[in-house]
Structure formats: C-alpha cells, structure tokens
Amino acid sequence: MTILSQARRRVLLSTAFAGLFAATAPASAQQSGQRITITGEISDSWCTISGLMFAKGTAHHQCAVWCALGGIPVAIRDSGGNLYLILKIGDDEDSAGNPRVARMATHEVTVDGELLERDGVKYLLVDRIADDKGVITMTQEEHGIQPFGN
Amino acid sequence: MTGGVARRSLLAGIVATLATRAFGHDYKAAPASPPAHDPLATQFGGAFSLLDHTGKRVTDVDFRGRFMLVYFGFSRCADTCPVDLPVIAQALDALGPAADRIAPLFISVDPANDTPAVMATYVANVHPRLIGLSGSEAEIAATAKAYKVHRRKLTQAHHGHGEYTIDHGSLTYLMGPDGRFLTLLPHKTSPERMAAVLRKYLS
C-alpha cells in the first residue's frame, strides 16, 4: 500500500460524512475553446473537491505533490472557488499534465490558455505560465503538514 | 479476492456518498453533439492493438459501433483503481441493458505483471463486462501516449522485495462508436453522475 492510499483510506474512513465538499463551479454556458487567463492556486482535484487534507496553502503542499504524481487530476482554483482541470501544459504531448504540474503544487499562478467545458467540467489547455508567485498561502501553523506531518 | 472486492465496493460507496458535490454536481443533460470548435476531440485516443483478458488480440477497430469507456490502471493498484473501477461498474449497472452499447476497457499500465490470466481474474472481480487489455511494453507505451496517460513505476521505503507501485493517470475516457473522443470522467466522478453522462451520449 502506498503512502497515498494509506492517507486516503484513513481520511475516507474518518470523514465519511457529508457536507465537507466545497462547491465546484457552476456549469455556465461558456464557449468551448475560449481564450482565458486564470489566476489561482494549483492543487489536486481530489482534495480540493472533497475538502479533505485542508486543501490549501502550505499545509496541503506535500499532499498536493503526492496526489499530482499519483495521477489525481490537477486543477486551478480561482478566488471565486471555480475549478479548472488542467489537461495540458505548454507543449507536453505525452501526458495530461500531472508530472509537470506537480512542481507547481500549491503555487499561486496566473496562466494563459484555452478553456474547454464538457459535461459540466471546466478544462484548461495551458499555453504558458504567465506568473508563478510560489506558495504564498501559509496555512501549516494552523493546520499542520498534511497528511502525516513533517 | 472477495475481501478485496468488498473493500473496493465499500470505498466506492463512500466515495459515491461523499461525491454529491463533486465534478459537475450541477450537471444537467444537454445535447450530446460536440461543439463546432472542439480542441478536446484531438487530445485523446488513437489506434491500439492489445491482448484482451482471454488472450485474444484486439484493436480499437474491433470496438467500432460501440462506445468505449477507457480506463488505465493495473491489477496491483491500491490507490486510484480500487476507487475508480467500482464507480465504472456501478455506472454500468445503473444503465441496465443500455450498457450493452458500451465496451468498458481496463488497459494495464503494468504489462510485465498483467498477463491475460492475471487480468481475467482481476476484471471478473470488478464487473462481468469489464474487458482487461494488456500487451507488450511497447504496445502499452504507445496506447498510454495516445491517451496522454503518464505512468511511473516506483518503489517506496515500505515496499518489500518485489513490491512496487505505479503512478498513473486517472481519467476515464468516453470514446464514440466511431472511436473518436467524446468526453472525460475525471477521478472523483460519482457513479450517478457517470451514468447520467453516459446516458446522455447513448441517447
């Protein structure tokens, strides 16, 4: 069993109650293929949607890296709580972005790209990282380092 | 294996219960026709030639006329596969006879271990209609690249001799009867929502 699975199972079993889920973006009628600039925090979609592992800032950095490398789709969450799932970064033709985006886990970034919406989910094909402020949301003192501490 | 299936079902049940507000929770059925400008259509999918879990060689063309619901994973996976595969199984069950028009494909990212015999046992424990596909390393590499699935084999400190895991992408892909990409079902999709999306395209 991997570290990711141990963490996930422990959390699933200990938090099997409703109401933890942060709201995802409403399915607006945006045009598919719309050029867009998004600013927000990069995080894995599992924790961001579920609200588990306090999915924000430094407290969640370690977990976000593991989830991204483990294959969990990575998203950008903007200040309005909208989630944009990243399918591609730059000229990466081999994967849906996970290994590359893991290096920017928890970073506050601004990206330019193409917004594609399908079946209620917003996807991003990122052309370029216009700005990367690094990890700027300091949450570890309040929430500890998720999931196992330092 | 029964215990493993029970654990997977339990896990999927928990996920389904919790995922009421997951991706597209406000999803509403809409016309299934793709937008005129559809960059997603060319992002995922392509030709493959692999061995199914009976040992028969199959290609993507063999599934023409049916939708393909494609998921990549491996039989030893303890992370995403035990979560996502029961979701697929429950969605198929929810569709009833309409699910006959869908070929659910479980493509191994671990061809060295996932022989047809291994895959046969594994898929039988997930869903009777699930088709396990494996092949040579080159065949799997080409298929994974076509679907933009990253995979990375690694060992960790707690692994014993011969133990390992493989990080792999966790998107589920719906391909149309013509083999072309239709939509994605991201990890964290609930069975109900997956069934609703599938129903939309089937209609």
Give average pLDDT of chain B, whole number: 86
Given this structure, which CATH class of chain A is correct? Mainly Beta
Low-confidence residue ranges of chain A: 9-31
Report how far apart the termini of chain A are: 20 Å
> Can you write the helix and strand succession of chain A as a string?
HEHHEEHEEH
Give the overall average pLDDT of chain A.
Answer: 72
> What global shape of chain B is seen?
globular
Number of helices of chain B: 5
The most extensive interface, with participating residues per chain, is: A-B, 48 and 46 residues
Keywords (chain A): Signal
Signal peptide (chain A): 1-29
Structure description:
The complex is a heterodimer of chains A (150) and B (203). Chain A is α+β, with helices and mostly antiparallel strands and 150 residues long. Helix content of chain A is 26%, strand content 31%. Chain A has five helices and five strands. Chain A has a five-stranded mixed beta barrel. Chain A is globular and about 40 Å long. Chain B has 203 residues and is an alpha+beta fold. Chain B has a single domain (2-20, 47-156, 165-202), classed as Glutaredoxin, CATH 3.40.30. In chain B, strands 2-1-5-4-3-8-9 form a seven-stranded mixed sheet. A two-stranded antiparallel sheet of chain B has the order 6-7. In chain B, helix 1 crosses helix 2 and helix 2 (81-95) packs across helix 5. The N and C termini of chain B lie far apart (36 Å). The relative contact order of chain B is 0.23. Classes of the chains: A alpha+beta (150), B alpha+beta (203). Chains A and B meet through helix 1, helix 2, strand 3, strand 4 and strand 5 of A and helix 1 and strand 7 of B. Chain A: Keywords: Signal. Chain A: Residues 1-29 form the signal peptide.
